[in-house]
Amino acid sequence: MITQLQDYTASLKEYAENLAPKMATSVDFLNENQDLLTLSLFFVTIIAGWLSGAFKALRQKPRLAIRTIDGPTFSCTFPTGRKHNNHDTHRTGVALYLNITNIGSAPTGISAIEVGYHWNLRPISLLWLKYRIGWFWLKDQTAALADFQCSIGESVKIFPFLTQRSSLSMSDTRTYLLIGEATNGVVYFEQSESWGGCFPKPQGSHTKIRLRIIDAFGRRHDSKHLIPTVTLEDAKKFNPRFGETHTELNRELPPSTEEEIEA
């Protein structure tokens, strides 16, 4: 046992004797190259700070939670009373009363809102593949000619627009959301005059839509919803000028209300 301890002590002594010159050499090298060491530490600090900021920026991003609110949230397809190549034409309007909450870790603004849906086309054609399997998108909102509203007893409830200025309410639109903030409002879309199955595919008394919000950073926030399909008469209970924007822009005759597109 004593012999093993002596051997171990001798090994440590030999290791220390061999290490001392190396440490001295390292100290001399550091003393002779202090400028290089300082510069190296400077660049390492910069790179570490940049990486830390980059990871922090990746973690901090907005996230929008989107839900529809009961009221002026529906799709309506109605005949125009005109024909195209002997086909009756129709027009579709979509109103969405939205609640949007920023549940992310950075503020953002709402730059654009788009809505998509499947057309009610029969298989099989290129249009069927593109708009029945895929989505038909309305990428631009339509200016509503009147405010969305409903009568409650002797009072009238005015629904705020999300991006359009109301003609009846003095409230401003709010599309910039800090962390945890929410905003409500109606968005409105009209599809150009179409014919055949170029309208939202019904699912009973509802239709499926895909909503896309593009924020100020160009990020997309998508959500899917099932919304009611209603008659033009019911749609006009919420907005007496529903479905008339393209009519006014194109100076057409008002849409016929005699019959609705069958679901």
TrEMBL record:
Keyword tags: Membrane, Transmembrane, Transmembrane helix
Location of region: Disordered: 241-263
Parts of the chain that traverse the membrane: 36-58
Superkingdom, natural source: Bacteria
Comp. bias (Basic and acidic residues): 241-251
Name of the protein: Uncharacterized protein
Species assigned in the record: Rhodovulum marinum
